[in-house]
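Narrative of accomplishments. A recurring question from our advisory board has been how the design workflow behaves on a single, concrete structure rather than in aggregate. To address it, we present the structure tokens for one chain from the evaluation set, followed by the sequence designed for it. No filtering or post-editing was applied between the two.
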């Protein structure tokens, strides 16, 4: 069977099971098994799949459909900002919309020597994506889970920035004394919305997702951290419908950035 034909069949199965991006997931399954990029898969549609690869691919599809466990957890890796990260259930799966946060930071801070903090680093995807694109930066990645920090350290080494990424075990930024900038993808889902979420989300660590009744518990703590560390720049992601609350917390210094669908998604705060 050709890659194109297998992707068509697998996409249909994944779609019927309720998976949100069935064709992309089918392509990613083949990319993982063939050890090539998704782009290379798209350029190889007329190539024949070996029986061995097809059996393994079919098995992954069946597991994905039967359990609704995120594909990233099944294959143990995920792509973000053009980089590949090892993933397990101790960390949240990187979202494509979070790439906007990375773009916002890179577009506003130059490659001068800077020390940053990535609060709640998880698998390290945000910090590592920044370090790959800024060779003069160093970043602390904080997390309360040792398993997450172990994974983030491995991902930093895998992407050749291990000497500039420093994992720190603490709540938010309690162990950090000073930084030039702060980046954060905090939990921001209200507890009340838990029952409305896709089945996949419930496999992810709760502390990375939910933040009190209005989803703002962690975001409300960011101004104090910003002041205490003496940082000049803060960028963070927030949830749907939270832009006005973010503006109320940070005032006129807060720049709100919309995603490509026109939805407010990222806040940037500067201090002179």
């Amino acid at each position: 069977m050709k890659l194109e034909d297998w992707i068509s069949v697998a996409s249909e199965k994944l779609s019927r099971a309720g998976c949100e991006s069935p064709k992309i997931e089918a392509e990613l399954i083949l990319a993982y098994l063939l050890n090539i990029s998704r782009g290379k898969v798209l350029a190889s549609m007329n190539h024949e799949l070996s029986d061995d690869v097809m059996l393994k691919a079919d098995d992954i599809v069946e597991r994905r459909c039967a359990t609704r466990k995120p594909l990233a957890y099944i294959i143990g890796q995920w792509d973000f900002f053009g980089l590949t990260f090892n993933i397990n259930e101790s960390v949240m799966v990187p979202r494509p919309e979070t790439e906007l946060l990375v773009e916002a930071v890179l577009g506003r801070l130059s490659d001068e020597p800077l020390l940053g903090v990535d609060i709640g680093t998880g698998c390290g995807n945000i910090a590592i994506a920044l370090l790959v694109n800024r060779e003069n930066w160093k970043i602390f990645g904080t997390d309360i889970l040792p398993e997450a920090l172990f994974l983030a350290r491995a991902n930093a080494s895998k992407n050749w920035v291990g000497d500039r990424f420093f994992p720190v075990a603490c709540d938010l930024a309690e162990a950090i004394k000073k930084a030039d900038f702060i980046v954060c993808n905090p939990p921001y889902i209200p507890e009340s919305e838990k029952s409305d979420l896709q089945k996949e989300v419930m496999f992810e660590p709760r502390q990375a997702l939910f933040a009190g009744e209005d989803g703002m518990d962690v975001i409300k703590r960011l101004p104090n951290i910003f002041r205490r560390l003496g940082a000049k720049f803060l960028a963070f992601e927030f949830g749907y419908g939270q832009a006005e609350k973010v503006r109320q917390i940070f005032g006129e210094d807060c720049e709100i950035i919309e995603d490509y669908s026109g939805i407010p998604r990222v806040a940037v705060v500067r201090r002179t």
